[in-house]
Write a structure and sequence with these properties.
Layout: E1 2-4, E2 7-9, E3 13-15, E4 18-20, E5 25-29, E6 36-41, H1 45-64, H2 67-83, H3 85-96, H4 100-124, E7 130-132, E8 135-143, E9 146-150, H5 156-169, E10 173-177, H6 184-196, E11 203-205, H7 210-218, E12 223-229, H8 232-242, E13 249-252, E14 257-261, H9 267-275, E15 288-294, H10 295-309, H11 330-345, E16 349-352, E17 368-371, H12 378-381, E18 388-394, H13 397-404, E19 409-410, E20 412-416, H14 420-429, E21 434-437, E22 452-453, E23 456-457, H15 462-469, E24 470-477
Parallel strand pairs: 9-10, 9-12, 10-11, 12-13, 14-15, 14-20, 15-18, 17-18, 20-21
Antiparallel strand pairs: 1-2, 3-4, 5-6, 7-8, 8-24, 13-23, 16-17, 19-22
Helix pairs in contact: 1-7, 2-4, 2-6, 3-4, 4-5, 7-8, 9-10
This protein binds nicotinamide-adenine-dinucleotide.
Nicotinamide-adenine-dinucleotide binds next to helix 7 and helix 8.
Pfam families: Aldedh
Keywords: Oxidoreductase
Domain Aldehyde dehydrogenase: 24-474
Amino acid sequence: MATVAGVAVDPGHWIGGERVRSAGTFTDVSPIGETPLAEIARGGAAEVDAAVAAAHRAFPAWARTSRDERARLLHAVADGVEKRIEELAQVETADNGALIRSHRRGVMPRVAHNFRFFADWLLKLGHDDFETRGHTNHVSWDPAGVCALITPWNAPLMLATWKIAPALAAGNTVVLKPAEWTPLTASLLADIAAEAGLPDGVFNVVQGYGAEVGGPLTAHPDVRRISFTGSVPTARTIAAAAAPNLTPLSLELGGKSPLLVFADADLDLAVDLAVEQYDNAGQVCLAATRLLVESSIADEFTARFLEKAGRIRQGDPREETTDIGPQIHRRHLERVDGFVQRAKADGARALMGGGPNEELGGLYYRPTLFAGAPEGAEILTEEVFGPVLTLQTFDTEDQAVAMANGTRFGLAATLATGDPERARRVTERLVAGTVWVNCFFVRDLKAPFGGSRQSGMGREGGDWSFDFYCDLKNTVTAP
Ligand code: NAD
């Protein structure tokens, strides 16, 4: 047992209702001070086989369990999460360096809500029967089987439960592979699920590295669904692994989303929206990292942005007063810095930041804003996944739309405008899974969520989650 932030965390896998060790381990390191937190079981093909087999065995009984009972158990998991919000928040902050205040008051309550929402949605899921020449059509939502869920480190428990809850609600069993940089809260969730009474084998966790665990898991012939959140290159590897079995995929990938600020916008709001993009030290897939500002207000916008962003308090994420914490890992910080140095070499000017925070040391990277990057520069087209924004200007609505749509991504877009008619016109032309008008990050679990172009494949949320995690069946009965 490891103790992290005063909380006991089992570093083993969770397979068939039992803790399982591996011969090897890997060291989980906190981004706060780069201190080791725990030696985690390092899974491989054998642990994947065992977990898929356990999930496969548990599937028929779980699939037959009534909707009411499945919903009751998912609410019991939510109760368990709510009882342990402070512990989950402390452990997640130690593990991924995101703010304790948002884990306490935003993320962990939302984790519980993920379970409650999909439990309740299950109870009203369905179609009205309909008739064809006197025959009755009845659509049923049959669970698909074993689901492989693979998640990233930037919002570990939040993103995992966004998949686990609907997959289990639908009557599937699950094998979760958490990111190797943030394995801890998945382990706590296994404890909570067991205490809630989830039958053995319904929920399994295999810890380890991407290729060693994710590889065999995504190629496994008994896996009936793969839901992945992570980067585009990994998605390509997963799609190739899934191809021989034609395993259906849901992919939630990266972005390079725009924030369009029109001259008619409420400038205070626009600046607030822009500065918010540094949240979680920029490690947010949905972040609008390209600020596209109408030329006539660009100077004023920039001045106000620099003034406000200059007041961001960077530091220890365990302090309630901190606004942004460290990067997740030294390798990630070096990757972010690589983008920044290449942007400078390409001719972009850093109006703010532009390097690690030397005062704080460690993995703290200064919030950075670039202007003047030449068209086509890497910094304008590739996802950095750090606290790095770019500023570009436009003169016309057409130009704004062309710039907004000018990358291979299409995850989200944010608009600041005081003209509802313009908002409607521009929104219609944007390629994005989510568009926010005069707001950001407002997410309802009922809404479809996902990305266009290389930002993903498929949508999850509400009925769309159940569409993915179920095999829909239409039964036609003669009169
Ligand atoms: P990543 O692709 O490196 O890793 C994600 C997960 O995939 C990890 O668990 C990793 O171990 C696993 N993995 C790695 N290689 C694998 C393989 N060969 N087979 C199977 N699994 C494998 O991504 P990351 O660095 O952890 O996360 C950052 C990325 O995630 C960014 O691109 C970000 O935009 C994206 N993201 C997207 C969303 C969304 O909802 N669209 C949300 C959060 C993060």
